[in-house]
Structure formats: C-alpha cells, structure tokens
Amino acid sequence: MTDALIDTLAHTRKALKLTQAELAQAAGLSRMAVQRTETGEVDPRHSTLSEMARVLGLELLAVPRDLVPALQAFIQSGGKYLAQPSGADAPLSVVEQLALPGRTLPGQSHTPPKAKPPR
User: Fold this and answer.
1) Which Pfam families match (predicted)?
2) Would 73 be classed as within a structural domain?
3) Against a cut of 0.70, is the pTM above it?
C-alpha cells in the first residue's frame, strides 16, 4: 500500500513537472527527504507523505478496508454510482438532489419552459 502511495506521489510530481527540490521546498522538507521517500530508502512519516500530497493537490484518505472495492468501483465509474438504495436511511444522493424541481447540473443554465401561445 505504501509503495502504491509513494508511486502515486512521484508520478504526480513528474506529471506536474516539479523537481524533487521544488516539491521539497513547497512542502517544507529537504530534497533528500523527498528523494529517499520516492526511492524507498526510508519508511516515511505520515506527516511527510501528507505534506507532499498537499503540495501536489492530493489528499490522503483513510478508507475502511471493506469499503475499498465500492470506492474503487465508484471512482472507475466516473461517479455514476450516486443513487442511494431504496429505503436507505441517508441524505439524498447528488443524483436525487439534481432531480429536485428547479435544480440543474453544474454548467447548465436553467431556462424555464416557454408558455404555449394561446389558441
């Protein structure tokens, strides 16, 4: 798990075209701390990983192990798994909220229906 996290951090840093030194400076770490973390030379502290993630625009999130498959399916579906099962005691899902009268999707303009001309 830590290897996948560190790989994600290193890949994101490279995708953002940041050097290890630039990431280190922005995160308040030494360049050697970033290098040793990325190469697996050290077992990094949570605070080190958290600061690296913050600078890269990522968030570390602890998810209960039994929910990981559902979360992965949700992410892979592009967020299309939003409706609550019937009878679930939970707030309205995003899909249900958008279905409320007068609600629109982000980026859509709400235009009221045109009245029919009199006959």
Assistant:
1) HTH_3 (PF01381)
2) yes
3) no
